[in-house]
Each structure stands twice: as C-alpha cells, then as structure tokens.
Amino acid sequence: MAMNISGFGTSNASYTGMNTGNKGYKAAEEAVLADVMAEEAMMTPEQKMMYELLGGREAHMRNVMSNFNSDGDFVGPGGVVVPGMYHGRDGEVDRSTWQQLIDVSDDARQKMFDNVKREFIQENGISNGDTTKRSKIFREYQLSVKKEDRAKGTWTLQQYEGKYRSAMYAAVKAANPKWEPGQPFDPGILDSVTRESVESQLAKSGNTFVKKSFSGSSFDIQI
Q1: Secondary structure of the chain in the HEC alphabet?
Q2: How far apart are CA 18 and CA 5, in angstroms?
Q3: Which residues have C-beta within 8 Å of that of residue 9, sequence separation ≥ 6?
C-alpha cells in the first residue's frame, strides 16, 4: 500500500487529538508510516511548509486510517473490502496461510454452481468479466462466515468454481468434439452436469482439488 505524499512537508508528529493506541492507527502505522517518514525526509523547505499547512503527518495518517476499521482490518475506501480479505502487500504475506481448503456450505457452493452454469450458457462457454455476478456471490459468502475463515473459504469456493466450469466444458466437448468456446451449443447438454456429480469426482490434493480416476481395482488421483 505505497503512499505518495510528494509535495508535502514534515510534521512534529504530535498527533493532537489522535488516538495512536487505536487498532486502526496501529494498522495504518504498520502499513505506511515508514514510507511516509522516508518521503518527509526528502522534502524541500517549500514542500515542508505546504505539508504543514495541510495538516502534516497527522492529517495524512488520519486519511490512511480511514481505510481501516476499529479492529485494524483493511477495508478500503467506503468499506469496499470485507474485513479479513486483505492479504497485505504483495510478497509480504505467506499465501499458504490463506490458500487452504476448508468446508464451504452447500448453499454457497450451489449458488456458485448455478452462477457458473448460467454464465456458461449465456456466454457460450466464455468467461466474461463484464457480465459475471461471481463477486456478489463471493462477498455474500464472506459476510456469512467468521472473519478468520473468509479468505480460506473464498479460496476454496474459487477451486470449486473452476471445477464446475471444467466439467461443463468437458460435457459440451464430449457431445460435440468440434465445439469451441464462443460457439453456440445445446444447453440441454448440461442437464446431466450437477454440482453433486462434479463434486463426487473430486479429491483434495494440497490446496486444490483434482479429479479422481479408477484404474482397474486401484485408485489413482490425476489432475
């Protein structure tokens, strides 16, 4: 969350009236204070004067704090980010802490399956970022579970989403080997593809799902 404050000056950092013990402030401090201080040190006298006139570091930190809630969670402007879904600066957070498979409710999985099917038919198998309703489903799910499960559950739901789409692609391709995404197809082909039928063929492998396969009497796992 790099902050550009070029053109402003340094502050005495007295933070009059600011609760620096607040979790929101602590989170903001951890996110940007080092960058703010580094930029302050490089300011010209003119920039310092302007910075002070506009409130200095305190005003800047108050602005940054508006992106955090009282628990110190990053929520972005106007609360656009669901608490618990911000993973920190790129490269600074171990993805293995949230890219994990956990249990996701049947209701959330069904909503995602229904959305994938609707969009697959509507867009003839093409993933269209302009018309998708997936973000609404993810946000609704996130707000329905406890904060510590939101990132993991969203990751899990994304894995299911990909498998649902792959199963639909395979079904249409099996019915018409010459079909390519973007070309019309008979929606009835997908009648046999259900959430249950797709999930019954899945097994966990690390932080994702793979398709089960049977070879004779032995059981194999293949991607």
Answers
A1: CCCCCCCCCCCCCCCCCCCCCCHHHHHHHHHHHHHHHHHHHCCCHHHHHHHHHCCHHHHHHHHHHCCECCCCCECCHHHCCCCCCCCCCCCCCCHHHCCCCCCCCHHHHHHHHHHHHHHHHHCCCCCCCCCCCHHHHHHHHHHHCCHHHHHHHHHHHHHHHHHHHHHHHHHHHHHCCCCCCCCCCCHHHHHHCCHHHHHCCEEEECCEEEEEEEECCEEEEEC
A2: 20
A3: 40, 43, 45, 47, 48, 49, 50, 51, 52, 56
101 neighbors 209 (Cβ within 8 angstroms): yes
Question: pTM of the predicted model, to two decimals?
Answer: 0.75
**Which are the contacts of 104, defined by CB distance < 8 A and separation ≥ 6?**
141, 153, 156, 157, 160
Rounded to an integer, what distance in angstroms lies between the CA atom of residue 167 and that of residue 182? Answer: 16
* 208 DSSP β-pair partners: 205
**Can you tell me the mean pLDDT for 148-174?**
97
> 83-124 pLDDT, tens per residue?
999 887 665 678 899 999 999 999 999 999 999 999 999 999
